[in-house]
Design goal:
Radius of gyration: 13 Å
Number of helices: 2
Distance between the termini: 26 Å
Oligomer: single chain
Largest sheet: 3 strands, antiparallel
Strand content: 15-25%
Strand order of the largest sheet: 1-2-3
Helix content: 25-40%
Length: about 80
C-alpha cells in the first residue's frame, strides 16, 4: 500500500481508464494504491487542458471503494 503521491505511468492511466470506464482527464498523480498496488485515488488538476473547471482535487477510481463511498453519501454519512 502506498500513501505517497506518484506520477502516473501509462499502465496506471490505462488501469484508471478501465476502472472509470472512460479516459481519465487531468490526472497528475496516483495518490493512493490498494494493498495489491492498484490505483485507487487520483489527483487531478483544478482546470482541464481546455479550461473547464474540474470538480475535485482527488477522485476515487477503485470500484469497491467508490461503491462504498457512494453508499455512504446516499445515507448522508458523507457528502
Amino acid at each position: 500500500m502506498s500513501t505517497h503521491s506518484q506520477l502516473p505511468s501509462e499502465a496506471d492511466l490505462h488501469r484508471v481508464a478501465e476502472q472509470l470506464g472512460r479516459t481519465p482527464r487531468g490526472v497528475v498523480a496516483i495518490s493512493y494504491r490498494t494493498p495489491d498496488g492498484e490505483p485507487a485515488v487520483v489527483m487531478t488538476v483544478p482546470r482541464l487542458p481546455d479550461g473547464t473547471p474540474f470538480h475535485s482535487l482527488f477522485d476515487l477510481t477503485e470500484p469497491l471503494l467508490l461503491a462504498q463511498a457512494t453508499r455512504m453519501a446516499a445515507t448522508q454519512l458523507i457528502w
